[in-house]
Model the fold of this input.
Amino acid sequence: MQNVLAIWQREMKAYFVSPIAYVVLTLWLLLSGLFFYAILTNVIQSTMMQSQFGPGSQPVDVPGIVTRGFFGTMSVVLLFMIPMLTMGLFAEEKKRGTMELLLTTPVGHLHAMMGKFLASTTFLLIMLAGTWVTISALFKYGQPDWKPIVGAYLGLLLYGEGLLAAGLFISTLTENQIVSGVITFGVSLVLWLIDSFSSGASGAAKDVLSYLSVIGHLDDFIKGVIDTTHVIFYLSFAFVGLFLTYRSLESMRWRS
Amino acid sequence: MIEVEHLTKAYNGRKAVDDISFRVEKGEILGFLGPNGAGKTTTMRILTCYMPATDGTARVAGFDVFENSLEVRKRIGYLPENPPLYPEMTVQSYLHFVAKIKGTPSAQRKTQVEDAMDRCSITDVRDRIIGKLSKGYKQRVGLAQSLLNNPEVLILDEPTIGLDPKQIFEVRSLIKNLAGTHTVILSTHILPEVSMTCNRVVIINDGRLIAIDTPQGLANQQKGAERIALLIEGPREAVRQKLASIPGVMSVQAEAGSDAQPAGFTVECKLNTDLRRDIANAVVTQGWGLLELRGVSMSLEDVFINLVTKEEV
Done:
């Protein structure tokens, strides 16, 4: 446990010593603010237009629509941010030869992997916490339903964990962090596109594609429904990623 | 302390290490000598559990490096060929990190780090960023890292590379001071380093062990004859003949030049004979001037070149 904490601590420091943390956080907060503003104006405009048709129209749940739109968009933004968090995790260790240090001290593969996974998860939590700045505005000026918000945060966290584990695995495959980042980015893009393919497909293909759609599983969370099927999907996604990472690290000893 | 038996490591069919066996006793300093690509680094990586062997066994402090890797890793300090440093960290925080992952109890960490910095004379750069340090400092930070947690066994891959002569001297005396309390394996291709610091030498070439002995023992073993160098003032040809006539002398070589100048001679005698007295007598009774007389011992360079080239023939 001490080893995992030591690795976690070093990795957190490394994030905040390098420009990566600041670039990612700035971009993330900026985009979350911009999208929030854009979605909010959009919703307000359409409600105003609707109300012009007469007083008989149904009341509109503005905070609900904003939350759904906002978290849906941010999940796509996250897809582009995650590769930046994971690209260097193992690639840099390999390049600097510090892998040799980690593997010849009592740390070993498993602790190194857990420490790094925890560090990137911590960073993800910081990012998610950052979006509270915009979401809190809803609570200040309205009475939004808290369930979809809690669901969305939980969903984004689980979804992020899955992507982080995949990125961690890709980072063990190369000692060039740019290559690692680009591949992770490509994989994320494919996972995103699967969602649009699934709506075009039919029959069994549609079922398979929509099950694999990483973003598709978020929908229920954002609606405030926590379904174990989706939780299990994300957890097993993360587990497979970590398992592959572990095997890849082990096989490094035999390959090098 | 370290037992290596029939160790073999193959990469894609090519044997980087081929059936190497040796033992290192507690408190001993063993030098690993060999040309580049001889398999020194590979052997060290196997001993430090970084990579498994294809065949054979290696035990450190009684623990097998493959079966009981964790126990071995707890007991070794390792300085790889390229010091494993995090360029964005300061020297001090890096050493604290390494002490932590080596399992040093937090109460001892501070003194351990101070001690290691002191021994490697890097205290003056403790707050500097590692990435900004010179090669010599980086190398010594790497060495300091290997000393943390006071390991029983130290495995140092070319510890003096990139250092200036004064630093080389300091690091060598540091390693010598470790003898007795620590068991050390160090690799190098600087030959005088081995004769200065090591109790025993292993010479490997092309993955195979070709000699293991004390530096002195190796020199004796490889020596075909005793050699004596002379500087004599006298008629060249007459001197040469006189020297050759002394019983026990196998050959005499004279330096070219005029008779007016003192000339150098190299005399080869049978092994385990000391003809210095006879030679001095012979020269002096002839009335020639004996300006210099010394026994020539074979240097480790000669031994090394001899062994490594002999292998190839």
